[in-house]
Amino acid sequence: MNGTMIKSAMEAILFASGTPVPIQRFVQALELSPKEAESYLESLRADYCDEQKGLEIIRLDDSYQMVTKKEHAEVIRSVMDLKRNLPLSQAAMEVLAVIAYNQPVTKAFVEQVRGVDCSGVIGSLTVKNLIEEKGRLELPGRPLLYGTTENFLRVFSLKNINELPQLPDREDVLVEGISKEDIDENQMLLTPEFSEI
């Protein structure tokens, strides 16, 4: 199979899937090395950078997905009669930020940082598929650990979690009198080795 056919096949796979496709799946299906698969996928992604196209290919960690461009969201929503998603509340954004920057974390850790009960917000973020359970701590009660999802990366246009904006290095108070040192110290206490569920 030549390069043009490989890219064509990849395009068809991405279109038919509708969800992120791991690079490893392309490797298996098209009998390529991981490096070759990534190279073809990046070339295909570049082909879709044309401003005249309504679709684009995005990378989410080690997966690729074909999506519509953001500027067409309103038109698509009206044609498909989709309701606009309500924006996240301030509380939800704060909880999401704590989890994104410190993951994997427990609900207790998030509540310690914010100073209020976060059960409802964590439940809401889970339903929106922005966070998910990542395992359990090896402590009494084996509390759940939470981290962000691929959907989180897609919503915030990030390739991977390392693309989150850097936090300032200043020793400022982050939330309600808790300093970054307090958070780092408590995080070490709350995140020893953990096992997957």
Structure description:
There is one protein chain. 46% of the residues lie in helices and 17% in strands. It is of the alpha+beta class and 197 residues long. The chain has 2 domains: 3-79, Winged helix-like DNA-binding domain superfamily/Winged helix DNA-binding domain (Arc Repressor Mutant, subunit A, Orthogonal Bundle); 90-195, Winged helix-like DNA-binding domain superfamily/Winged helix DNA-binding domain (Arc Repressor Mutant, subunit A, Orthogonal Bundle). The protein has a 3-stranded antiparallel sheet with strand order 1-3-2. The chain has a 3-stranded antiparallel sheet with strand order 5-4-8. It is globular.
Q: Which blocks of ≥5 consecutive residues have pLDDT under 50?
A: 170-197
- How confident overall, as mean pLDDT? 80
Number of domains: 2
Structural class: alpha+beta
How much helical structure, as a percent, in the residues?
A: 40-55%
Largest sheet: 3 strands, antiparallel
Task: For this entry, give a set of tags.
single chain, 197 residues, alpha+beta, Arc Repressor Mutant, subunit A, three-stranded antiparallel beta sheet, 17% strand, disordered C terminus
